[in-house]
Write a structure and sequence with these properties.
Blueprint (H helix, E strand, L loop, with lengths): L1 E3 L2 E3 L6 H8 L4 H25 L6
Antiparallel strand pairs: 1-2
Length: about 60
C-alpha cells in the first residue's frame, strides 16, 4: 500500500479485507451505496460506448 497525498493507493496483492475496511464496506448501507456507484459508472461507460459507435440504446 502506498500513500499519495491523503489518499491511500491499493497495491496488487493487498488483502481485500483491508480495502473493504478502509472503504467502510463492512456496513451494509455503505456496501449498497458503493455498489450503486459502481453500477452508475458501468452504465455510463456502456452508454458512452454505444453512443461513440453511432448506436443509441436507451
Amino acid at each position: 500500500m502506498a500513500i499519495a497525498g491523503k489518499r491511500t493507493v491499493v497495491e496488487p496483492g493487498e488483502p481485500a479485507g483491508d480495502l473493504a475496511e478502509r472503504l467502510g464496506l463492512h456496513r451494509p448501507e455503505q456496501r449498497r451505496a458503493f455498489r450503486a456507484a459502481l453500477d452508475r459508472v458501468r452504465d455510463a461507460e456502456r452508454r458512452a460506448e454505444y453512443e461513440s459507435d453511432g448506436i443509441r440504446l436507451r
